[in-house]
Specification:
The chain is of the alpha/beta class and 254 residues long. It has two domains: 97 residues, no CATH class; 134 residues, Rossmann fold (3-Layer(aba) Sandwich), CATH 3.40.50. The protein is built from eleven helices and eleven strands. The protein has a five-stranded parallel sheet. It has a four-stranded mixed sheet with strand order 3-4-6-5, with helices on both faces. The longest helix has 19 residues. The chain is globular, with a radius of gyration of 20 Å. The relative contact order is 0.11.
Length: 254
C-alpha cells in the first residue's frame, strides 16, 4: 500500500472522520501491488471471498511466475487457469506443492478455503468432450471449499444415464451442467431439481453449433426457471458461483 494513502486513511480515523469499519474497508481496497505488467489484487480475498486468480491465457510464463511469487510472499493460495503444459510445468518446478490438472489446464497451490467447508456441488457433463470445461469448474469449486461430485457423459442422447444418478444429484445444493451441441441438458436438469442450476455452454458440436452459440442460446432460452447461464466454456465462472452458493447453503444448515 502507498504510504501517503495509508497516512490519510489513519488521519481520517484519528480525527473521527471515518469509522473503524470504513477504515478497514479502505485498507482492503488499497491492497494492490503494482508490477510492470500487472496490478495484483491482494485484498480480493478479504473483499470478495475469493483470492486473485491468474488467467494463464495471453500471459508469458515469466509473467505468470512473477504474479505467483508475489502472491506466495503473502501466503495467498494460488489458482492459475487456462495454462499451457509449458506454463504449468514452470509453475510446478517453482512450487513443488502445486497440483496440476492437465485436462482442466489448472494449477492449484494451497486452498482458498478448507476442503469440504462449503456445501455440495454436483457437476454434470453431457459428453466426454465437455470434460475440460467441467474439470475447470470442479477444480475451481473445490479450491474454494466446495464438496464436488462428478456425473459425466450423461447427456440427452441417452437420458437414462442421468436418471440413475438423480437421487444423489438432488442432495446437492447447486448443480453445474456443462453441455455443447444444443445445450438441452441444462433444461432437463433444471426441470428435475429444486436447486439452482448453472448452465455452462461449451464450444463442442458439429457445424450448426456455431462454436457454442447454439448451446448458449438454448440455455438462455431454457423454460426451466432455475437455470442461470455463464459464457461459453466458462468453467471457472461456474465454479466460483457454485462455490459461493454452496457456501451460503452450508452456513444456513449449521
Amino acid at each position: 500500500m502507498d504510504a501517503d494513502n495509508l497516512v490519510k486513511i489513519l488521519e481520517a480515523y484519528k480525527n473521527s472522520k471515518a469509522s473503524l469499519e470504513e477504515v478497514l474497508e479502505q485498507i482492503r481496497l488499497q491492497e494492490a501491488e503494482e508490477l510492470e505488467f500487472a496490478c495484483v489484487d491482494h485484498g480480493r480475498m478479504a473483499r470478495c471471498g475469493i483470492p486473485e486468480v491468474i488467467l494463464g491465457q495471453g500471459k508469458t510464463a515469466d509473467q505468470i511466475l512473477s504474479i505467483a511469487r508475489q502472491m506466495a510472499k503473502r501466503q495467498s493460495p494460488i489458482l492459475a487457469t487456462r495454462l499451457s503444459p509449458e506454463q504449468a510445468k514452470l509453475l510446478a518446478a517453482e512450487f513443488p506443492q502445486a497440483q496440476y490438472n492437465e485436462l482442466a489446464r489448472v494449477v492449484k497451490i494451497g486452498q482458498a478455503a478448507e476442503p469440504a467447508s462449503g456445501g455440495r456441488v454436483a457437476c454434470i457433463s453431457a459428453g466426454t468432450s465437455d470434460l475440460p470445461v467441467a474439470e475447470e469448474a470442479v477444480e475451481t469449486a473445490s479450491f474454494l471449499g466446495a464438496q464436488v461430485e462428478k456425473f459425466y457423459d450423461v447427456g440427452v442422447a441417452g437420458i437414462h444415464r442421468l436418471m440413475r444418478h438423480m437421487g444423489v444429484i438432488k442432495s446437492a445444493d447447486v448443480a453445474i451442467v456443462v453441455a455443447g451441441m444444443e445445450g438441452a441438458l441444462a433444461s432437463v436438469v433444471g426441470g428435475l431439481l429444486d436447486k439452482p442450476v448453472i448452465g455452462v455452454p461449451t464450444s463442442v458440436g458439429y457445424g450448426s453449433s456455431l462454436g457454442g452459440l447454439a448451446a448458449l442460446m438454448g440455455m438462455l432460452n431454457s423454460c426451466a426457471a432455475n437455470v442461470c447461464v455463464v459464457n461459453i466454456d466458462n468453467g471457472f465462472g461456474a465454479g466460483v458461483l457454485s462455490a459461493m452458493i454452496s457456501r451460503l447453503a452450508a452456513k444456513r444448515s449449521v
